[in-house]
Amino acid sequence: MKIRTFAAAASILAIATPLAAQQAPIVQPGAPGAESRMLNAEDATKLADTAYSPADVRFMQMMIPHHAQALEMAALIEGRTSNPDMVKIGGRIEASQEDEISFMREWLSARGEPAMMQHMAGMDHGKHMAEMHAAMGMATPEQMARLATLNGSEFDAFFLELMIRHHKGATDMVDDLLRQPGTAYDPVMFEFVNDVKNEQQGEIDRMNAIAA
Question: What pTM, to 2 d.p., does this model score?
Answer without folding.
Answer: 0.74
